[in-house]
Design brief:
Elements: H1 16-23, E1 27-29, E2 35-37, H2 39-48, H3 53-73, H4 79-118, H5 121-126, E3 131-132, H6 133-140, H7 144-156, E4 160-162, E5 168-171, H8 175-182, H9 196-204, H10 210-220, H11 236-254, H12 273-282, H13 294-302, H14 304-311, H15 314-318, H16 320-324, H17 335-364, E6 370-374, H18 380-389, E7 395-399, H19 403-414, E8 423-425, H20 434-442, E9 451-455, H21 466-478, E10 482-490, H22 493-499, H23 505-514, E11 520-521, E12 525-526, E13 531-532, H24 534-540, E14 544-545, E15 551-552, E16 570-576, H25 578-586
Parallel strand pairs: 6-7, 6-9, 7-8, 9-10, 10-11
Antiparallel strand pairs: 1-2, 3-5, 4-5, 10-16, 12-13, 14-16, 15-16
Length: about 575
């Protein structure tokens, strides 16, 4: 039997011996149909194989070459070959995921550490002493809540670790982290926090001032002679690249070029395109001549969604030093920017939801008469449903608290992307069912039997308690609404440390914590936060979460874990109201 190491080009990777052990190690398939590797293999990968940016791009190209070599030189029906290909698929997915999820965390890290530098916190970490957060808050007049949010984020990214009790933290021993902190260069207070407007001007071909051009030049120019990290844990190079990539790729997403041929990402006619392309090259996203790499194509396709969601909290980063001082002020999420990003990020989950709706209606002979999309954004769930079902027999409604979201949906309707009979409910707080139900009843619409789809909207309810969330779901249940919604599972620092960049949850959790929003665990109860899971709240409100139509994305660990704990990154909860549950159970 041929060994995977006999495949031509296998030794070209500097990590080929470790990769051989992983590829030839134990593999399998998850219950959801995703390939898996063993816990031992994943530990080897996380500890020894760097896979961000240029290293990830080179590794992805190498894996694809080996995959092609296996197809040419080995029997396709071999069980060993099938196992190798499963392992390769896992590694390819982890690399591609990391390229999409890491930049936002690194962008946040640059801002958080800048505030900590100004507050003198980095000096304490540089001393290699244990930092007690409660003592730090008391002695420096800092917000203990914000400190805990910050340090939970930094722990999840392996910058600091627990020491001497619940409130004690110290710098980790990883050399790249120690160098990152010791040589940290804070952001200039005079520099913009939000680079998107200036970058948008460049892509739009608008004239920019000499001062703005110099600021952009400084921003886009990477520090010299930074070395890549030896494993998943970031160093200075990774942080500086992530800080630049997030706004740069969002500006590209806003430009007409994102619909152009992938053979030309940033044309030469764009102001400072040479610096932009140099940055993309250092990130392993483009080759010479601005042609995207295989990894670059993935990031250009999937990155703008999560990038936009996190970047929409740039006002919080602008005021982060004030937040650290306990000054909440008037900070907010840039909702208009967040709308398009949410649509990009939720497109795939809405496809899963609409597929479940089709299966449910066919199996139970259910006739949809009213379709509601709450937290409507640009109406992505409605757009998909309209394309499948038309508007002859269905009334469509969109609801949102924010006018910016409704305005975007109205624009999409004018373009013919949403149904012409779609009506909108403004100022609809999803945390109070009455804001939606009363206007529909006033229009003569019965909401019993309506299908309501929500994309990551319930976590935005402020000041959540278990009792409040149960009451919210109870209101929708008593109105008779069939509820389908997607929510990302709340994950712990330990989860995030042991999965590296395999989700973008670290940053997602952080920006939602500092803005007063609440994520909930995938399983029944989270001891750290005293929060019940979404499912537990739903069931206590009278909903039946139907197991056959509730779907999920892949799990956070690409391995079958010995303790069985492996939550999905996000879940699409398919909730049957009390009045309908008996009929559905009988069928």
């Amino acid at each position: 039997m041929v060994s995977v190491e006999d495949i031509e080009g296998f030794a070209a990777s500097p990590h080929h011996k470790i990769l051989a052990a992983i590829i030839q190690g134990e593999t399998g398939m998850s219950s959801a149909g995703f390939p898996t590797i063993s816990e031992i293999s994943f530990h080897l990968w996380m500890t020894n194989v760097p896979h961000l940016f240029t290293q990830g791009s080179a590794l992805l190209d190498w894996l694809q070459t080996i995959e092609e070599g296996i197809a040419r030189t080995t029997p396709p029906s071999s069980q060993a070959v099938e196992s190798w290909l499963r392992a390769i698929k896992v590694l390819e997915t982890v690399i591609q995921t990391a390229a999409v999820t890491a930049p936002t965390d690194l962008w946040l890290m640059k801002h958080i550490l800048t505030s900590h530098h100004r507050a003198g916190i980095l000096k304490l970490l540089q001393s290699r002493k244990v930092v007690c957060l409660q003592d730090l808050a008391s002695s420096q007049g800092l917000s203990i809540q914000q400190l805990r949010y910050d340090f939970h984020f930094l722990k999840s990214r392996a910058v600091v670790t627990d020491a001497d009790g619940d409130d004690g933290c110290a710098l980790t021993s990883h050399p790249q982290i120690q160098n990152l902190i010791d040589a940290f260069e804070p952001l200039d207070p005079a520099a913009p926090v939000n680079w998107l407007p200036l970058l948008n001007q460049c892509f739009a071909g608008q004239t920019i001032s000499r001062e703005d051009r110099q600021q952009l030049t400084d921003f886009l120019t990477m520090p010299e002679e930074l070395k890549p990290a030896p494993n998943w844990i970031p160093g200075r190079l990774e942080m500086e690249l992530g800080y630049r990539l997030v706004p740069l790729l969002l500006a590209w997403r806003n430009s007409p070029y994102h619909q152009a041929s992938p053979e030309c990402v940033i044309p030469e006619k764009v102001v400072l395109s040479h610096l932009m392309n140099a940055c993309l090259m250092q990130a392993g996203l483009v080759h010479e001549g601005s042609k995207p790499t295989a990894l670059g194509r993935r990031v250009l396709e999937r990155g703008p969604g999560p990038f936009g969601i996190i970047h929409a909290y740039h006002e919080y980063m602008k005021h982060h030093s004030a937040l650290l001082q306990g000054q909440r002020g008037q900070t907010w999420v840039a909702r208009g920017e967040n709308v398009a990003a949410s649509q990009d990020a939720n497109r795939k989950t809405f496809l899963m939801i609409n597929d479940s709706i089709d299966r449910f209606m066919a199996r139970h002979n259910f006739q949809m008469k009213v379709f509601i999309e709450h937290a409507v954004g640009q109406g992505e769930a409605t757009r998909q449903r309209y394309a499948r079902s038309g508007a002859d027999t269905i009334q469509y409604f969109g609801a949102d608290l924010e006018d910016a979201a409704i305005d975007r949906a109205v624009e999409a309707q004018k373009r013919g992307e949403l149904p012409p009979n779609m009506r909108f409910v403004r100022k609809a707080d999803i945390g109070d069912p009455g804001y939606l139900i009363k206007p529909l009843e006033a229009w003569g619409v019965s909401v019993q039997g309506a299908i309501m789809v929500v994309g990551n909207g319930f976590h935005e309810i402020r000041s959540q308690t278990n009792e409040k969330m149960i009451a919210v779901f109870k209101g929708y249940n008593e109105a008779g609404i069939l509820l389908i919604f997607t929510e990302e599972s709340a994950l712990s620092d330990d989860d995030l440390l042991h999965t590296g960049w395999n989700t973008y949850h670290a940053g997602f959790r952080f920006v939602h914590e500092i803005s007063g929003q609440g994520l909930r665990p995938a399983y029944e109860y989270d001891k750290e936060t005293d929060r019940l899971s979404w499912r537990a709240c739903l069931e206590r409100a009278g909903y039946w979460v139907h197991p056959s139509y509730t779907t999920q994305t892949r799990t956070i660990y690409p391995v079958p874990r010995a303790n069985g704990y492996n939550p999905a990154i996000s879940v699409n909860y398919f909730c049957i109201p009390t009045w309908l549950a008996g009929r559905v159970r009988e069928n």
